[in-house]
Amino acid sequence: MGSGIFITGTDTGVGKTFFACALVELLKQAGYKVGVMKPAETGCDQSDGKLMPQDALALKEASGCEIPLEKICPYQLREPLAPSVAAEREGLIIDIDRLMSVYNEISSTHDITVVEGAGGLLVPLLPSYTFADLARVLKLPILVVAANRLGAINHLLLTLEQAACRGLHVLGYVLNQMENELSVAAETNREALSMLTGVPCAGELPYFEASRLDRVDLIEERLDFRILQPLLRRANT
Ligand SMILES: Nc1ncnc2c1ncn2[C@@H]1O[C@H](COP(=O)(O)OP(=O)(O)OP(=O)(O)O)[C@@H](O)[C@H]1O
Ligand SMILES: [Mg+2]
């Protein structure tokens, strides 16, 4: 088995896919065979009668892996809702054993597997089963992405506290600058957080113009690789 990491966020739309894809590209460049998984994706548009899970497609492209899309994302759901709710409205029940066996299959053939959640840590996959439960059964350490803006301190501390309560191993968090203009909150969040939690900040990602292609350089410069050491140590090489 290779090693794995679960990328969660403080909310939906905070940059999980953006960060996960950059991390995947970086690991790939460093010589690792990288697997990816998005256990459930909701809000999938249809094109030519096929659902298009955009996050799963982006992760697949970033990794260059040959895992079929149906395995990268076993649950592709139409409505932009929490997976448990979207599944129920399509008459489906998400099978956690299936997710575990797909993850084990991907992990056994890749050095490192990067798994992206949907929304935040307590988003449900089943009416009373969350992504935090999934990360725990998959024995994955987590990394939390937060949008670096006003509110990030509270959202991050709530997420980190819940992760600790649920026995998850948190590697660190990333502060992601989603807007072009840097607010005072964005400039001061990192230091304020360092006084409030012992969980390390893995880095601050700047705003990234969509036209730029050097996503790997961006995170290579900003990420504290010491935080990823437990992941890299357990990877197949
Ligand atoms: N640092 C950044 N600079 C510029 N744009 C960014 C940055 N981070 C994220 N974005 C953009 O913000 C949008 C939301 O990011 P992303 O899709 O990665 O969020 P997410 O947390 O994965 O959302 P979801 O909960 O839907 O999976 C995307 O269009 C993404 O390209
Ligand atoms: Mg995403």
General description of the model:
This protein has ten helices and twelve strands. The longest helix has 14 residues, at 16-29. The model has no long low-confidence stretch (mean pLDDT 95). The strands form four sheets. It has a six-stranded parallel β-sheet, with helices on both faces. The protein has a single domain (3-233), classed as P-loop containing nucleotide triphosphate hydrolases (Rossmann fold, 3-Layer(aba) Sandwich), CATH 3.40.50. It has helices at residues 16-29, 54-63, 69-72, 83-89, 96-108, 131-137, 152-165, 184-196, 215-222, 229-233; strands at residues 3-9, 34-37, 40-41, 45-47, 50-52, 75-76, 112-120, 124-126, 129-130, 142-147, 170-176, 201-205. By secondary structure, the chain is an alpha/beta fold. The protein binds adenosine-5'-triphosphate and magnesium ion. Magnesium ion (MG) is lined by residues 16-17, 55, 116.
